[in-house]
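Duplicate of #3305? Posting structure anyway:
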């Protein structure tokens, strides 16, 4: 199936995710789609597969215009997606998941024997070996993903979008997938292959398209590309001006936070680092490199092994409560998951971390609370009139500022911010950057995780680069540069 898209536009509120993207893919082609986190790859993939509707733009399939109304509609036209967020049915078996909607029947009943034999045929064709009878929910993500790929083939998709298909796979499994992808293309299927692993993209794709900041940058044949040429196009020019001036931390004496030999079942392996008071340390790395897992472990949200010292004292962080008591605060990646109670008022949300100290003196503290909350709202830049509004009614930027307010009330020693500017408009973003710089100036140790490299570079004094659950490189001051960070994140640079 040949695909052409032209002038694709997509906005999510204030975020302009795709800015007039046009491209053409030939039938039987494997097309790579690369770009930094947030470049718009997944959004484009979802638009092609009917999961997300574009705000503007046209699409043609085999020369005919096509306007998709839904993913089901796309599937009816032979287009399928294996998304980053898998769409499997956990309580059904592997074979049932793969054949979902295509179950062979005998009369009205599903013909299980036939279903199984079609499944095995399909697995052989694609080159995956999966146990057809296993409940999918009990399998590892990599196997669930294989089932999704098989399902796309079972549904006779002629164009398959694979979004980061190897992110959860071992290197062996990734090789199998690459081989399977080539086989699918050899049968005339068209594949859009989104991946952060440039070596894989170079190996499997005929041509590679680079997106940057929602824009099409260029398409080139894989033979004439290298990991370096792709990285250079992915980066382009960055603006540094919107960031506050950095202070100069001393990095002497006792670190505010010292982490040694940290490992976890979420994939962290022997992580060691320290942060001094007044320092902003950035964590960079690709999706799945372990950045958020590291933050969650230090914040006690996930269990871990290893040693954590705060101001030189060994501290056992066995829960979020223990972390908060030890002076750690965290702005989670997903505000809804670990952060805010959306139906509760701004004031209530800000008071939550200190609730234990408030209940004892409930009457006196009520008005004291309103006052201190008001002052804090002013500091972070949220209108005081918003104090009684449910947090869920605020914009993303204001919600994030409320999170800052909530944690600043606890006067933390260590502040962890996971994607602090995600889903935040430009104005709020500038204020958030200032708050982070101010916190460091006041002697807090700040750990920032961001998929936006320029944000890490703009805010951090030092950058730790993660890859596969480990810190593979540490860059400070002048060596904090995009090319260097990405080189380590992708594993194309020598370890330092
Ligand atoms: N459902 C959504 N709501 C709001 N913003 C979104 C949504 N999906 C993506 N975005 C934003 O759109 C931009 C592009 O995202 P995405 O297409 O996922 O990029 P990529 O896959 O290249 O990392 C990012 O800034 C992202 O935060
Ligand atoms: Mg993506």
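Output from current build:
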């Amino acid at each position: 199936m040949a695909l052409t898209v032209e002038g694709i536009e997509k906005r999510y509120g204030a975020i302009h995710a795709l800015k007039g993207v046009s491209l053409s893919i030939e039938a039987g082609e494997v097309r790579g789609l690369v770009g930094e986190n947030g470049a718009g790859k997944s959004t484009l993939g979802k638009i092609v597969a009917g999961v997300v509707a574009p705000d503007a733009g046209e699409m043609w399939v085999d020369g005919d215009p096509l306007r998709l109304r839904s993913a089901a509609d796309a599937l009816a036209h032979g287009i399928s997606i294996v998304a980053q967020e898998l769409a499997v049915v956990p309580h059904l078996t592997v074979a049932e998941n793969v054949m979902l909607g295509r179950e062979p029947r005998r009369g009205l009943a599903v013909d299980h024997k036939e279903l199984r034999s079609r499944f095995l045929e399909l697995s052989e064709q694609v080159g995956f070996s999966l146990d057809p009878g296993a409940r999918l929910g009990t399998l590892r993500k990599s196997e669930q993903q294989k089932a999704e790929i098989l399902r796309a083939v079972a549904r006779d998709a002629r164009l398959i979008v694979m979004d980061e298909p190897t992110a959860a796979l071992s290197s062996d499994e990734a090789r199998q997938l690459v081989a399977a992808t080539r086989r699918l293309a050899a049968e005339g299927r068209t594949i859009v292959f989104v991946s952060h692993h440039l070596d894989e993209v170079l190996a499997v794709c005929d041509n590679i398209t680079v997106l940057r900041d929602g824009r099409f940058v260029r398409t080139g044949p894989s033979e004439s590309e290298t990991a370096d040429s792709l990285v250079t196009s992915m980066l382009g020019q960055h603006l540094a001006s919107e960031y506050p001036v950095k202070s100069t931390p001393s990095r002497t004496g006792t670190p505010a936070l010292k982490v040694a030999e940290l490992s976890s079942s979420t994939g962290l392996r022997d992580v060691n680092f320290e942060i001094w008071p007044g320092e902003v340390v950035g964590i960079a790395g690709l999706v799945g490199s372990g950045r958020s897992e590291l933050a969650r472990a230090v914040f006690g949200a996930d269990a871990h092994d290893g040693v954590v010292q705060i101001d030189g004292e060994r501290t056992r962080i066995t829960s979020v409560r223990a972390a908060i008591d030890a002076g750690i605060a965290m702005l989670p990646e997903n505000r809804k998951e670990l952060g805010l109670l959306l139906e509760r008022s701004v004031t209530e949300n800000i008071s939550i971390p200190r609730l234990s100290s408030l209940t004892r003196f409930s009457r006196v503290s009520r008005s004291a609370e309103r006052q201190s909350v008001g002052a804090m709202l002013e500091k972070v830049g949220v209108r005081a009139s918003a104090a009684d509004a449910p947090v869920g009614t605020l914009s993303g930027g204001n919600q994030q500022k409320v999170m800052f307010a909530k944690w600043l009330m606890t006067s933390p020693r260590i502040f962890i911010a996971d994607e602090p500017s995600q889903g935040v408009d430009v104005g709020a973003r500038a204020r958030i950057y200032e708050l982070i710089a101010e916190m460091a100036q006041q002697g807090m140790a700040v750990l920032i995780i961001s998929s936006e490299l320029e944000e890490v570079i703009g805010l951090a004094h030092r950058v730790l680069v993660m890859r596969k659950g480990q810190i593979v490189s540490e860059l400070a001051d002048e060596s904090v540069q995009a090319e260097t960070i990405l080189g380590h994140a992708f594993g194309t640079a020598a370890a330092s």
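Confirmed duplicate; merging threads. The chain has two domains: 3-235, 257-490. The CA atoms of residues 207 and 221 lie 4 Å apart.
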